Amino acid sequence: MSPVPLPVLPLVDLLARLGEQGECRYDPDLHTGPDVFEVEPIAERRARVDAAKDVCESCPVALECLEYALRANPAHGVWAGYTPRGLAALRTQVRAEVPAEVA
């Protein structure tokens, strides 16, 4: 499987594009969850994360969002269909697949 080339934009431009074209702009709480002072039951969190991932599937800037998330390493939220744990696993997988001479 060959890697998908990611666009290389400054982070500020990536954020602008996400804010202007991202499907998450219609319901940002879906992707970020409640604030730190509110308890979200596990079942509700799982349902919210699954719904956010569904929104990401049809997002026109999902690749840019993935690039941002891989570069910014967010601590919470759903980014291009990935949670922070999923992004960490993706980074590990990519590192394992990149030949030593490229890395």
TrEMBL record:
Cellular location(s): Cytoplasm
Cofactor annotation comment: Binds 1 [4Fe-4S] cluster per subunit. Following nitrosylation of the [4Fe-4S] cluster binds 1 [4Fe-8(NO)] cluster per subunit.
Post-translational modification: The Fe-S cluster can be nitrosylated by nitric oxide (NO).
Superkingdom assignment: Bacteria
Key words, A-Z: 4Fe-4S, Cytoplasm, Disulfide bond, DNA-binding, Iron, Iron-sulfur, Metal-binding, Transcription, Transcription regulation
Residues annotated for [4Fe-4S] cluster binding in this entry: C24, C56, C59, C65
Main location: cytoplasm
Cofactor(s), by name: [4Fe-4S] cluster
Keyword Metal-binding: yes
Domain 4Fe-4S Wbl-type: 23-89
Entries under InterPro entries matching the protein: 4FE4S_WBL, Whib
Xref: PANTHER family: TRANSCRIPTIONAL REGULATOR WHID-RELATED
Role description: Acts as a transcriptional regulator. Probably redox-responsive. The apo- but not holo-form probably binds DNA.
Family the UniProt entry places it in: Belongs to the WhiB family.
Protein name: Transcriptional regulator WhiB
Organism encoding this protein: Actinocorallia aurantiaca
